[in-house]
Every structure is written in structure tokens, then in C-alpha cells.
Amino acid sequence: MSRIIIVSTYLLLFFYFGCNRIDSTNNQKVNPVVVKHIKRLEKEHPGLSATLFNKLTISSESTPRFVYLSPSETGIDFQHIWDVQPKHRDQLRNSFIASGVAIGDFDNDGLADVFLTRQKDGGRLYRNLGNFHFEDVTSKMGINPAGMWSSGATFADINNDGWLDLYVCGFDCPNRLYINQRDKFTEEAGAYGLDFHGASVVMSFADYDLDGDLDGYLLTNRLHPSDAINNIKILRQKNQPLRVHPDNREEAYFIKPPNRIQLLIPAGQFDHLYRNDNGHFVDVSMESGIGKSPYYGLSSTWWDYNDDGWPDLYVANDYMGPDHLFRNNGLDDNGVITFTDVADEALPHTPWFSMGSDYADINNDGRIDFLASDMAGSNHYRDKLSMGSMSGPNSDAWFLNFPNPPQYMRNAVYLNTGTDRFMEVAYLTGLAKTDWTWTVKFGDLDNDGFEDVYFTNGMSRDFFNGDLKERTQQIASKDGSYSLKVLEMWEKEDPYRLNNQVYRNLGDLQFEDLSRRWGLDHFGVSTGSAMGDLDGDGDLDLVVNGFEEPILVYRNDVSTGNPLRIKLKGRVSNSGGIGTKIVLDTNNGRKSMVRYVTGSRGFMSSSEPIVHFGLGNMDMAEKITIDWPSGITQILQDIPANFLYVIAEPNLPSQKINQPSLVKSVGTMFSSSEVGLAKVLHQEMEYDDFQRQKLLPNKSSQLGPGMAWGDVNGNGYDDVFIGGSAGFMGMLFLNMGNGQFKNALQFCFTYDVRSEDMGSLFFDFDRDGDLDLYVVSGGVECKPGDVLLRDRLYINDGTGNFQKGSLDLLPDIRSSGSVVAAADIDGDSHLELFVGGRIVPGKYPESPRSYVLRNTGSKYEDATDVFAPKIKQSGMVTSALFTDVDGDHQPDLLVTYEWGPVRYFHNEGGQLIDRTSHVGLSDRQGWYNSISGGDMDNDGDTDYLVGNFGLNTKYQASTTKPEIMYYGDFEGNGKKRIIEAKYENGICLPHRGLGCSSGAMPMVKQKLPTYHQFAITSLQDIYTEDRINDAELFEINNLASGILINKTDKKGKVRLEFQPLPRIAQASPIFGSAVCDINGDGNLDLYVVQNFYGPQRETGYMDGGVSLLLLGNGTGQFESVAPAISGLLVPGDATSLTIGDLNQDQRPDFIAGVNSRNLKIFLNQTQSKSMAIRISDLSEGQNHIGAKVSVNFSDNSIQLHEVSAGGGYLSQSAPVVFIGEGTSQRKVKSIHIRWPDGLIKKFEVDKFQSQAPSLSFSNDVK
Q: Which residues of 1056-1082 are buried (b: 16+ CB within 10 A; e: fewer)?
């Protein structure tokens, strides 16, 4: 982006501007130092002025709160009354029961005024007289709303004259544009081309083409009654899908559900994009690519999500209409601004019934995040009452995973990664379920430096009440008056009143519900709302409109921090600075707060167009950077808090904003490769696990691919095996040594194409000096004990050609397995194998068989009872790692489980003894997926990274509120069922709703025929205490991923202390994991790949992550690296993760497997100084698995590396140890290698260097 940069030292050479006073409305004394800073700023920035805020109002109550001010106190005597014409009675069910709020200083007297909309008379304008007194000036100011049903309203300076105009949307009437003539308004919508007549929700203004004036996006909804769909003209052509006649495009459209006939869906109106051509607005919707579909629009928000200077647009659509994220493409070759909907690329999922939306930088990382709301119940009762049926032929549940991106019944919080893909963190932040939410409003309400969020709730009627919906289905009509009778039924019901909510931002992606404490938990039907400083004291007050209730005005008495507010005056840009980005830096630049200036936000409303910052206890902002839409960048330094600054755009030539460009990984730590292995696609044949077990929480048929690396043809380069799913062969790719790989088709793999490949392992089974291949068979696409579940051993002929070993080489194992890991357990130089049982097909969560196999020299035999009898039925194994936990040079075994702890099996004379309870792990039950080892605190022993499901799902387990599951016969018919349960207020309640539960067990509906009854009934009362007690209980209390710090003492007493990963790492389930030194600083770092697409559709994909790099400091502490910096981005259902050196530059690269997608390949480009030591002795009868590499540093710290066979998740990396050279204060001194047979080789650094030109070269150690 080309910009003019203005800094103080430069400006002082050219400008001198003085001001003899600092505006203050209450004669407060100002510190002389502050006065000096203000005068300096006024000189440096001509046109800047500063006004000291009024003294903050402090609540007399012990707990600070928002104070409700009655109409008699404010003079705002306004109430939204529902009284519609008969033809519009049906709108009771639509969004036009709502009403909006617009706040802005229309008369430029320094006080924020208020406009309110309603159905009855078009709304009222209230002038702020100060001290929260308002005057109705609707008629006086020329506002004539008679006969108008007003909806959304926006203050904006349409004609760039410095005075706010007012645009008011209407339902079934022309929209109105009131141009501010200073002493009054004149209605000129027709003259400006903005008098659209239809179902307008709100107009969102932005200068999307950066020409200095405001353009507009008109959001619309449904105009026609819902039964209009019955009169649609349908076009039918042979062998062609059905289509709606063009005359009816704003009444209905078709979609094609999976495995069903086409479905006719009610439509809304088309939205409209208007370009401002010198004061006349031209509809450019079609040519821009932005207005092609008629949906139920509820909010539209301009923001610059990719920070390229061009305004982008988020559109939230209700029901089955997809949300849009329109990326501004800039000018095309014909000079036309176009937009591309990138929602499917940028967003993992969206809300189903999207409503209000807003943006904020919720974690102060300098990137703008976004929240789109839905109507998910915030407690068990509302959730189960409104869930409806999630099963059966009339259910809409099929729709949840049907769109791309999927749509789920909950809020979505999109965390900006600085790349072209957002994370989604609603559950992690605690903002996933806020009831029937209209308004979303971000703002720093307590001025502590973090933006809080306010939600309004309620509806005209409880249209999602499952019992009321069933009643509508029972209404019979023989005379065609069904719709009328249903409407009459709803009209007799009461409004659906709910509490409004406010959440305080605690930082680190945590929000706290303070609705009651802050006095913002009004119970009613609230819709539009807006924020503004109504009394000039520097904090954000609230005005809330509603349905059939008086307006709510709140004075903010919770603020204790120091505010700083900015009002912009554009000169080259539009007058209000709409589209400006402002970044405020504090704490020596380590904390950045970003704001983006726009108009309409939330729902049907627009807040005061002034930028608000809270600084907490800081009294000075170090730097403020203002990026104007014109391309000019203005920098202010050392700005005192507690002032409102009016800042004028520098009167300089505008600078061209560069054309938008897609995010590239230039200058990142890793680059993503698009060639070679990146073209390898994993595929799945669809299988419906839930048809087999209706209440199954997750699928187990798509848990791959796994991956294993090893040099199978002896050419010195590592080759790779990638497991195939049932119906697809596994694949072997030979490394050609130049970054290219050759697909080496193995005929023997075709024999097992029907088996599901899980874990795989390269090792020398027959001790002939080459690598053979073991593959675990798993999955659920068969019956228990099926021959398809037999594991396989493929024998290498020494050149990379494999033959399937005879069946007698392995015991007849027919357990659906997961992982295979190898180690010499008993010290006889033969490798034993641990094979983990994953699941019993069709009988989840019964424990499958796990095995320990002993190599007799000619074959493997089942020796589980010899080595580890307690491991046999120990649970559902997800991963395992052989590792020397206690430093006695014998391989111990760590195993991760679903519904269990990380188990520690200690090697005691060649037997693996369960010592889990001795080392501090038994009480930490989770859904663990993976485990990887590495010396993360440089103390000479191995610590462990364990991947869990994280904190960003509907499951919120703790020791006091565990997640539980019962498995047993609840119907008395001998058939075992699954019941998931949770705790709320000390009561055990079912996770699944009435529809799902009764779909599997009809007795539930017979016992509790209404959704209300089901929602208020405990688990024990639904299924009886006796049935519950007889069932098998599964319980988890920890879902955080973390590291196990090895605290083994000198006497060999083991203690593994759990330390959670940073909160951002909890945003999604962690599967693949890797531990190595990424940047060559001598400390081990972590990389994890995430997400899980297996949950049942009501839960939805756990897809909030994009993978994450965490850099270690050598003490066991880690700091996350944003994907925009790391270059590591893995959306999708990521599984395996391996480390390798793909381009022989001695730096670790990453290879990630993704279910049903291509492999992801990342090449390290950190320029770190490191070396790669290949631990590879494949001469006959030798073994390198279990070797240890100790790296001794100049500060006497020791970093231990172990060479393992299998780990992470379904992964085997090549036997290469990556060692960073360290820093100038801490360098590698020597390297000791201990072989499994006890032989130790020691290398001083200078001797290593004498063997190779530098430490950055590879060393093969044999």
C-alpha cells in the first residue's frame, strides 16, 4: 500500500499551529504536562482539537452498574407498539417486529442525539440537551415519518458537508433519506436514487470504491407472506432441475438436499449495492457480483477483514440462506469494482439462523475479529425446548452439514489469523449461546482496554418452541385456511421474553457474563440497540429499542479506566472518515488496539460515529496510527488519555491504495508447497456410523490418514507410506532426492483395499537390513471380528518392492485398531510391537482388545499376557509412545485413550506395569488423541505433548462438572444404548434432545410427550435411577491439551505434571503433533494440527483451528505464533503429522495428513542454523529404535532426544534428529549418542565440524 507517512519531526518543519486553550465543559484542571502534549499535537496536526471529558459518573451502589434512566428522567417517551394492517399480520413471525436505534450528533453541538424507529409512525428524533435530557424534535427538524413502517436507521454524512444526514429504511414503503440542512432536514431519497420500496432492513454505508464519497449496501428481507410460496410458478423441463419462474424469484427458490428431491424454500428480496456517482446512487448489484441471491437478510457490516485497505462486507442471512463474506476485489480490467463471496474459503462454518453481527479486535493482536449471532438457548431448558426434532423425515437436521460452509445453531466468533482463513472460537470465548439474539455490539464498556460485547434478546413469539410447533402441525384445515389458523394461534401467545446479556472481555479469549452485575439483564423483547457517549464523560452509554415495550436508556457507571475518543474529519476521504483504520499502541508497542470506522453495526442500528478506546490505568497512548481511505497515513505520538480528539485528515494529495491481493506466505517461517506430495489426495467412502448407533457422539469411520516415513530402497532418502481408507489402497511414494516423489504402486496393497488403514510402521521385522511395513486395520465398516480387521505385514525385498507376508507371520488379530509402536521391551534386540485397540464396531464405547506382540525371530506372537496383561482391555486407544520416562534405559509405554487418562506403563524387568496412579495422571480423564515426546525444559529427560479435544466445543468438562456417558440397557429390551450427559446447577441432564433420544428409544416420548417435560426432567427421572445405576459409566474432567513435564527425581521416582498449552491452542481438538527445534535457538518447539469432522451433526464439525506453532523458551513455556507469521495453515480435518527434511537443507519440514483432502506440505524457511542427524543403522541384525541423543550446551543444560518408532497421531517420522545450534549465549558444546545396545559415542562440536563443513550439514550416525 502506498501511503504518505506523517510524523511529528517531519511536520514541525512545515507547520505551526497553536491553540491557547484546551476545551473543557466543566472547568476541570488539567496537568501542565498534559497541556504541553496537547499543544504539541495541535501544532503537529493542523485541525486537531481536544476536549476534556466531563467527570465520570460513579454509581452510589457498592457494585458499579449501568443505571436505567426512565422516560421521565430522559424525556424519551417512546414505545414500539405492534399494530399492523391485516395484510401484514404474518410479519409477526419475521424480523420486522424489530426496531432500530441510530446515535449521532446531527446538530454538531458536541452531544450525541438519538433516532428511534418503530412500526407505527416511522420513528422519532430526540435532540440531546445534555445531562441525559432529551427533546423530541421530530417535527421541528422536518422529519415527517407519517405512514412509514421504519426498520433500520443510520446517521451518515451522505453529501460530505460535515453534517450528519439520516437514512431510514422501511417495510412495504419507500425508504427515506433526510438531508441535513443545519436548521432542518429535507427528505430527498428520490433525488438521490435511494427511495427503494420493499422489505428494507438497513442501509450500510461505506466508500467501497475509495473515491471519497459514501456508497451503500441495502439489506432486505421477506416482503411477501409466508404462504405466498403456495402460489409459485415452477418451470419444468425434461431432465432438468426444477426452477422458479423469474417473476417469483423473491418468493421462493429451490435447493437439492442430499438423497432427496428438490426442496422449495421461501425467499427474501434481492439486496442492492448502490454506488455514489456525484450525489446520485446507481444500483450496481449485478455488475459487482454482490446481489445475486434473495435471502432473509438480518445484518450487513462493512469491514476490512484482510487489511488491504478496501472495504469488505459480511452479510448475515436467516434460515437456509448462507452468510456472505464479500471480498472487495478492487477495480477489474474494465474499471469496475467487483466482489467475491469467500465465505466457504475463509470461514469454517456460520450460524444457521444468522442475526446481528459486529466486529472488534477481541484479543488486541491488531487484527479485526467478527461475531455473528444465532438463537441458541443459553441454558439446558431453552436449548431443549427450542431444539425441535433432529431426526425423522420432517427434520431439517440434514441441512446442518449440507451447505459449504456448514451452518450450525450457535453464534460464531471468527478470530482473524492474518491469513485468508479465520479460526472460530465461540465456545472458547464463552459466547456461543446467547439466546434469541438480535443485537451484537462490541465496545469497551469499562475502559479497561478490551472490547466487551452486549446482546439483546427476545422475540414476538416463541416460534421455535417444540411444543408450539407440534401444535401448529396438528391444526387441520379443510377450507384452505391453515396458514390463517396457525397465525391466529400464534397471535394468542405471549411475547417470548428473554434476558439481555453483556460479557466483559477478560483478555486471552475469555469473556465473563456480567449481565446481572452490570444491570443489563433486562427481561423482555429487545431488538436494535446502539452505543454512544450521551453525557460526554468518556464512556459508552446504551440505548435499546424493543417490541411492545418502552425504550431503554442506560447510563454507564461501570467505567473506571481512562478513555480516549477520536472523531475524524475527512478532507480527501469522506467527511466522517468511514473506512479509516486506527491502531493505538501501548506498552512499548507490545499491545495494539485496532478500530475500523463504519456506520451500521449490530442490528438495524448505528452507533455514534466516534472511535472509542479504553486505556485502563494508562494515562497516555504511545502512538496512534490513522490509515485514511485516501491512502494517507497519519501518526500521532504520546497522546494523553481522557480527551475527545477531533482529528482532521492532512490536506495532502491522496495516495492510491494498491489493488487487493490474496494473502501469500512471503517472509513467513514456512512456505506451503503446492507440488509433489501436496497433490496426494486422501479419499473416503461415505459411511453412516449413526445409522448403526443412533446416539453415537462421533463417527469412527474417518479417522485417517496415518503416515509413516523410512528409507525403503536404501538410497539415503526417506520414503513415505500414506494409509488408505476402506475402499482405497494405501500409497507408497519413493523419494527421488530432489524434492520429487514417485508413486510406487504396490500390487500387494490391492489385496487389502477393503480394509481401513490406521497406524503404520516401518521397521526391519526380519532383520535383513531393509524396512518392512506393518499396517493396523481399523474402522467400523464391518462387523466385530471380521477378517477385514486383520492387521497386515508387508515384506520389503530391499529395493522398495513389497509383498504381503504370510498370515502366520502375525497372530490372528481382529480388533479394530488404531496405533502401532515398536520397542525392544525385554532387551533381547528384537522389537516388540504394541497394537492399540480403537473401537468395537457397532458397540461404542465397549473396550476393544489391545496387544503386545513379541518377535520370535521368525514371526510375531501374541504375548500380551506376558508383557502387559492389564493393557489388554484398558480402553479405546488413540495413540501410544515408547519412551524412557525414568531414565533407566528401558522403554516404558505411554498410551492415550478416549474416555480415559494418559496411562503410564513402567518397564520393570521386561514387563509393562500400569503405574498411572503413581505419577499423577489417573485423575485427569480426557478424550486424548495423541502424544509426542521431547525435552521441552532442557533438563535431560523427555517431556510429553498430549493432544486433547480442547475447550472450544459444547463439551465443557471440569472436575466439578464432568462430561459423562452411560452405556447400558435403558429400555429393558437387552439392547445397549448411549446416553451423553452433563451437569447444570448440580443436576445431571441429557445432552441430546427429545427428538434424537426418542428416535432411538421411543419410550422416552411415551414417558415425556412434550419438549417442556423433557427439558425440565433430570437424566435419572427420564431413564430411572435403577437403569442408570446398572449402566456402565464413562467420565471425563479435562479437555485441555497440554504438556506433561517430567519431574523424575534422581532416585527414579516419576512425576508427570500437566501444564495446559496456551489458550489459543485449545481452539480445536489436537490430533497430529510434532516436537522439534524450528528456529535453531536450541529450544524445542511444538507444532500441532487440529479439527475433527466426526461429531454427529447436531454437535457439528469441531473445526475452529487452522493448526498452530508454539515456540519454546527452554523452560517448558510456549508462546503461540500467528499463522500469518508462521505460514502454517491447515484447515480441514487434520490427522497425522510428521517431521522430515524434504529438501535436504537440514531444517525440519512438516507433512500433515488431512482426511478427504490433499496432504499439506510446509518447507522451513527460517534460515536457522541447525543440523539433521540421521540415526539409521540398517545393517543386518542391528536396530536404531530406542537410541538417545543428548545435546550438551555451553550453559551445562542437556537436551535429550529419543528415536522412537510411532507417536503423535497415526504417525511415524523419519529417524532424524534436528538440533539447533543455539544462541550466542548458549551454544551446542557436544553430542552424545547412546545406542539401544548401550554403546555410547561422544562428539565434540569441533569434531563434528571437522567431519562436515558446518553444523548446518547432515550427519549420518551409524
A: bebeebbbbbbbbbbbbbbbbbbbbbb
For residues 132 and 75, give the distance between their C-alpha atoms in angstroms, rounded to a whole number. 9
Element holding 507 (H helix, E strand): strand 501-507
Strand-pair category, 369-372 with 357-360: antiparallel
Quick: pLDDT tens for 697-710.
999 999 999 999 99
356 alpha-carbon distance from chain centroid: 18
Task: Give the model's pLDDT for residue 61.
Answer: 60
Q: What is the pLDDT of residues 986-1030, one digit of tens each?
A: 999 999 999 999 999 999 999 999 999 999 999 999 999 999 999
- Residue 325 to residue 453: CA distance in whole angstroms: 22
Rounded Cα gap, residues 954 and 975, in angstroms: 28
Stretch (H or E) spanning 34: helix 32-44
The SS3 assignment for 468 reads helix
190's grid cell:
428520490
Q: What is the pLDDT of residue 291?
A: 79
Cα–Cα distance, 305 to 346 (Å, whole number): 10
Q: Distance between CA 1200 and CA 1202 in Å, rounded?
A: 7
Strand order in the sheet with 133-136: 101-104, 113-116, 124-130, 133-136
For the four alpha carbons of 737, 741, 743 and 749, in that order, the dihedral sign comes to: positive
Cα 412 from Cα 352, distance rounded (Å): 10
Q: For 78-118, what is each residue's pLDDT tens digit?
A: 999 999 999 999 999 999 999 999 999 999 999 999 999 99
- Give me 893's grid cell: 509405554
Q: What is the pLDDT of residues 1148-1199, one digit of tens each?
A: 999 999 999 999 999 999 988 889 998 875 555 567 899 999 999 999 999 9
Contact by Cβ (8 Å): 993, 986: no
**Would you say 153 and 606 are in contact if contact means Cβ atoms under 8 Å apart?**
yes
Instruction: Tell me whether the omega of the peptide bond preceding residue 71 falls within 30 degrees of 0, making it cis.
Output: no
Measure the CA–CA gap between 328 and 322, rounded to whole angstroms: 18
Q: Average pLDDT, stretch 677-688?
A: 96
The answer to whether the beta carbons of residues 356 and 437 sit under 8 Å apart is: yes
Dist CA 730 CA 750 (whole Å)? 9
Query: 667 pLDDT band (50/70/90 cuts)?
Result: confident
* Cα 641-642-647 angle, rounded to 5 deg: 75
The angle subtended at Cα 15 by Cα 14 and Cα 18, nearest 5°, is 160
- One-letter amino acid for residue 644 of the chain: L
Count of alpha carbons within 13 angstroms of residue 611, beta-carbon side: 26
Report d(CA 1031, CA 1036) in Å as an integer: 16
- Per-residue pLDDT tens for 278-324? 999 999 999 999 978 899 999 999 999 999 999 999 999 998 899 99
Angle at 164 between CA 162 and CA 165, to 5 degrees: 125
Coarse DSSP helix, strand, coil percentages of the chain, rounded to the nearest 5 percent:
15, 35, 50
Q: Cell numbers of 72, please?
A: 421521565
The tally of CA atoms less than 13 A away on the side-chain side of residue 108 is 15
- Calculate the CA 856 to chain-centre distance: 50
Answer whether the bond into residue 46 is a cis peptide, omega within 30°.
Answer: no
Closest CA to 498 of 602, 409, 378, 385: 378
Tell me how long the chain is: 1262
What percent of the chain is modeled with pLDDT above 70? 94
Q: What is the pLDDT of residues 32-56, one digit of tens each?
A: 999 999 999 999 999 999 999 997 6
Q: CB 78: neighbour CB atoms within 10 A?
A: 22
d(CA 1011, CA 995): 9
Q: At what angle do helices 482-491 and 466-474 cross, to 10 degrees?
A: 140
User: Does the structure show a pLDDT above 50 at 1256?
Assistant: no
Radius of gyration, alpha carbons of the chain: 33
Q: Confirm if 835 and 850 have CB atoms less than 8 A apart.
A: yes
